[in-house]
Design brief:
402 residues, alpha/beta, Rossmann fold, Cytochrome-c3 Hydrogenase, Chain A, domain 2, 3 domains, five-stranded parallel beta sheet, 14 helices, 11% strand, elongated, binds iron/sulfur cluster
């Protein structure tokens, strides 16, 4: 974990509003779509300031804004000059592309607004230029999505735009107005709640009502990205018992059809994609490592068995076949009442329930000895002994009668 400390003297006090400027570089806009699906808290919660103690957000987003043209751009210009008169954060979506490359041919990769050139002609202002200008005065620079954090798909092998993530672009010595390095919330697209929750935590900190949220050594919110997705996976029990899907649609662990979950830091299985629903393996998709700095190249080819699984899944197969069978034996006993054990049969009309054999009975006896080694065993239940009320069904003219 990072040992970052922020001087209290840098903290503004009594803030009622914090401006958030959304800047898009090389992106598909998926992060924007993901954040408007957030529910905990929602973007509307942040805009209306309904989180107790958190200042209200004034959002400047090129897609969601109701203003346009110079009216929309004016606050960007003020913030870039340090004249906004209110604290602000910059949220970057998409990778930072090398505008020098595009400029050499008279073009640009991505931009927002325009400045006049020496001839009075409007020239687009590249996103990277906004990032550079605004980063000097921002309270925090927050990269959302894998393109903005690590470079992502635009920076994959070939990389014709010479793309990079925000941290690479601003450099390791960068510190925001609050003394923070770049905050990174990866994912392709990132989970919406991961973004809003981190922004809310930073807002509470800005307002002096919360501690500085804990970030790991790569600037990820530690409480969201500290565990592998495998640890929270609903299929992890199958992995442990050595049961693996052979094709998509199977219910077992997906590692042999291309899941990298055991080494990928992501919380989507616990949190769901939107409103607690969905999430990759929950809906049958193997993890392709989209939150990780090595994505996509390090996880290619997608949907092929990761090499590491040759060792780990085969070990699980061996241990799982032993552990799984022992568990089955215990489960069979836990599916019986004390009376059924005494009677030596299960009175179910739904189907025949096999009675335990001698080996199973001995194993269960030993198991119970261990179970109650240090605590008293409950007295055997007399459940079901009121036999005088037992129904005795007979058939008369094809109908059941007592
Ligand atoms: S599907 Fe992936 S994340 Fe889930 S248990 Fe299997 S390997 Fe782990
Ligand atoms: S489970 Fe894997 S593919 Fe799915 S969001 Fe997380 S890192 Fe990306």
């Amino acid at each position: 974990m990072s040992a970052l400390s922020v001087s209290a003297s840098l903290l503004p006090t009594n803030i009622e509003e914090v401006h958030a400027f959304w800047i898009a570089g090389g992106s598909c806009d998926g992060c924007s779509i993901a954040i408007v699906g957030a529910t905990s808290p929602s973007v509307e919660d942040l805009l209306r300031g309904v989180i107790p103690g958190a200042p209200k957000i004034v959002l400047h987003h090129p897609v969601l804004a109701v203003t346009a043209g110079e009216k929309f751009m004016a606050p960007f210009r003020l913030a870039a000059e340090g004249k906004l008169g209110a604290p602000f954060v910059v949220v970057c979506e998409g990778s930072i592309m090398d505008e020098g490359l595009a400029g050499a041919t008279g073009g640009y990769w991505s931009g927002l607004g325009a400045d006049e050139d020496e001839n009075g002609d409007p020239q687009p202002i590249p996103s990277s230029s906004w990032v550079k200008r605004m980063s000097k005065h921002a309270a925090a620079m927050i990269a959302v999505g894998t393109c903005a954090t690590w470079g992502g798909i635009p920076a994959a092998a070939g990389n014709p735009t010479n793309s990079a993530g925000l941290m690479d672009f601003l450099g390791e010595d960068y510190r925001s107005g609050l003394g923070l390095p770049v905050v990174n919330i990866p994912g392709c697209a990132p989970q919406g709640d991961n973004m809003t929750e981190t922004i809310a935590a930073v807002l509470l900190f800005l307002h002096g009502l919360g501690p500085l949220p804990e970030f790991d050594e790569l600037g990820r919110p530690a409480w969201l990205f500290g565990e592998t997705v495998h640890r929270g996976c609903t299929r992890a029990g199958f992995y442990e018992e050595g049961e693996f899907a052979e094709e998509y649609g199977d219910k077992e662990c997906l590692v042999e059809v291309g899941c990298w979950g055991p080494v990928v830091q992501c919380n989507i299985n616990k949190r769901g994609a939107i409103g607690g629903m969905g999430g990759c393996m929950n809906v049958g998709a193997p993890c392709i490592g989209c939150t990780m700095p090595g994505f996509p190249d390090s996880f290619a080819p997608f949907y092929a068995t990761p090499p590491g699984t040759i060792v780990s899944s085969n070990i699980s197969r061996v241990t799982g076949s032993i552990v799984g069978n022992l568990r089955k034996m215990t489960q069979n006993y836990q599916n019986r009442t004390a009376k059924w054990n005494r009677d030596g049969k299960v009175p179910s009309g739904w189907g025949h329930v096999e009675e335990p054999n001698l080996i199973e009975k001995v194993a269960h006896f030993a198991y119970q000895k261990l179970q109650f080694w240090n605590s008293p065993k409950p007295k055997e239940s007399t459940h079901g002994n009121i036999l005088e009320h037992k129904m005795d069904w007979k058939k008369e003219n094809g109908k059941l009668k007592v």
